[in-house]
Amino acid sequence: MKPRRSILSVPGHVEKMHHKAAQCAADVIMLDMEDSVPADAKEEARKQIIRSLQSIDWGEKTVSVRINSTDTPYAYRDLLEVAEGAGDRLDSIVIPKVNHPGDIHFAGRMLDGIEMNRGFSNCIAIEASIETAIGLDCVSEIAAASPRLITLVFGIADYSASVGARLVSISGHGEKEEELYPGHRWHFPLSRMVMAAKANGFMAIDAPYGNFKDTEGLKQSAVMSCALGCDGKWAIHPGQIETLNQVFSPSQEDIDRAAKVLSAIEGAEAGGRGAVAVEGRMVDQATVRLAKQLVAQARHLKMV
Ligand code: COA
Ligand code: MG
Question: Which of 20, 34, 69, 233 should be mutated for ligand 1, with most atoms under 8 A from CB?
């Protein structure tokens, strides 16, 4: 799958930002119809997104669209109009506040029909945003709901509201968490979601970081979600992309270390051993799997 280290959310009704997004370094551009669009601009956002998908040169970028949640009066029209109008230019649909596998079935069936009706040759993927207590409770069923699914995405602010967690920043998007709770306040929901995503062979994406001027805080938050198995993180501002691309790419040091592990184990196996010591640490078949995964990722990003 193409990398999804940085996913820039772009308000659907603000055309100027669409052009800016097409020029930025994000792996994925997500044109949003949900929470960055006020109720009286929902229709305009749909129309603008169709125009932008049809007319802007997105280059090598992956382009997705976030519809409104299925319990609103907007979702079915978002999906119908955008997929019919420009589905052949679209990589994926993001569904927010997925509470039940039925939300995925609904979108999957609609897309089956639209693709057949329009004769599209591409298959529009689905990304499910897990951002409620019930969504997390049902995450395994949701993750297994459709072969169209390619990611699960953690929605931190809505999840906080859903479980009644205390708000510690203005935006609610992952800031100053360490001041309230030792360690990582979102460790459990994020890890639970990562597990469901990986059990089905797809990517796990972390929520955005709200204080877009705090690069250090963003980096810390991204390093933490990377450590938990996330493959990328949403961004809400172009200024966050470089940090995310860097954190979610292997470093040269990581690549060199992996190469060392792989060559050491080759020597060990030739000598009839499964485990060997490298720089005072034990290296065995589990370490080898990690090293191979890292090299594969580096190769995918054309770093080796
Ligand atoms: N996508 C594309 N371009 C963006 C952008 C985005 N998400 N956020 C900012 N920009 C552009 C601005 O239009 C501006 O362009 P210009 O220099 O050509 O005028 C430039 O980047 C600098 O923006 P800045 O002035 O620093 O930010 P702002 O105060 O205008 O906006 C936000 C701040 C947070 C309101 C804005 O970044 C935003 O709307 N982000 C997306 C919010 C979102 O999608 N939320 C839902 C996801 S959870
Ligand atoms: Mg949300």
Answer: 20
Pick the CATH number of 6-247 from 3.40.630.10, 3.20.20.60, 3.40.190.10, 3.90.226.10: 3.20.20.60
pLDDT digits (tens, 9 = 90+) for 111-153: 999 999 999 999 999 999 999 999 999 999 999 999 999 999 9
Token pair listed for 55: 């007319």
Of 245, 239, 237, residue with least CA distance to 36: 237
| CA gap 159, 164 in Å, rounded | 8
**Ligand 2 midpoint to CA 34 (Å):** 8
| Residue whose CA lies nearest to ligand 1 atom number 12 | 17
Question: What whole-number distance in Å separates Cα of residue 265 and Cα of residue 227?
Answer: 24
**Pairwise CA distance, residues 127 & 136, whole Å:** 15
pLDDT digits (tens, 9 = 90+) for 257-271: 999 999 998 888 888
Structural element, H or E, at residue 29 = strand 28-32
Neighbours of ion ligand 2 (CB under 5 A): 131, 155, 158
pLDDT at 183: 80
Please state the atom number of ligand 1 nearest to the C-alpha of residue 208.
48
Identify the helix (H) or strand (E) that includes residue 138.
none
What's residue 271's pLDDT? 84
User: What pTM was estimated for this model as a whole?
Assistant: 0.96
Domain ranges of the chain: 6-247, 252-300
Contact yes or no for 85/124 (Cβ under 8 A): no
* 184 Rama class: left (phi>0) / alpha (psi -120 to 50) / beta: beta
